[in-house]
Specification:
This protein is mostly beta strands and about 190 residues long. The protein contains 1 helix and 12 strands.
């Protein structure tokens, strides 16, 4: 039952983001940035802009309704950024960190071995937490996507480890579910 609630929440969030319109009333917002390769996008109603990840640079940027891309978070702990989620109710952005070996900061020590989450205040950009998820389960890892519930708890998929992690609003990390059909090697569970 919980799996379906999380999936419904994620689908609802995606539909809301898809219905956002640009300033000229069209449903297309064009932006560009050098080798960004965004894997995820999330809308902040509070700030009135989209946030995008960067698989290559390991950064987070914003895109305005007029299509202006602006670097937003540049943290050396972010090798490659994948899923991200805005939690406007708590002024937070959840950023998933992994490495598939294609980032400018990829290394043998992190490729397919990194699964982490960084949380930032959306207004100050201050990092509020960093969670290394690899300590909970051995093997290959890739933090891929995240959903956040109304209480501020985050649920993170790990495409290579076939688990969903939970980070409580208090910062406690656990394995929420082990689901073998989530295991992938390459493009993973979202």
């Amino acid at each position: 039952m919980t799996y379906f609630k999380i999936k419904s929440f994620v689908i609802t969030a995606l539909l809301l983001a898809a219905n956002a319109c640009s300033a000229d009333g069209s449903n297309v917002i064009r932006f560009s940035g050098k080798m960004i390769y965004p894997e995820s996008i999330s809308w902040s109603e509070n700030l009135g802009k989209f946030f995008v990840s960067s698989v290559f640079h390991g950064t987070v940027g914003t895109v305005s309704m007029s299509g202006k891309y602006t670097p937003y978070i540049d943290d050396p702990r972010l090798v490659s950024t994948f899923g991200l989620r805005i939690d406007d109710a708590h002024d937070r952005i959840w950023v998933l960190i992994g490495d598939v070996g294609t980032a400018e900061h990829s290394s043998p020590a992190t490729t397919n071995k990194l699964s982490a989450v960084a949380v930032y205040n959306t207004r100050t950009r201050k990092r509020l937490g960093y969670y290394d998820l690899t300590t909970l389960k051995g093997g290959a890892h890739l933090a891929n996507d995240v959903a956040v519930d109304a209480d501020g708890n985050a649920y993170i998929t790990d495409s290579h480890a076939a688990v969903i992690y939970r980070i409580s609003s208090k910062g406690n990390v656990s394995i929420f579910a082990k689901i073998n059909f989530l295991r992938t090697y390459g493009e993973g569970s979202h």
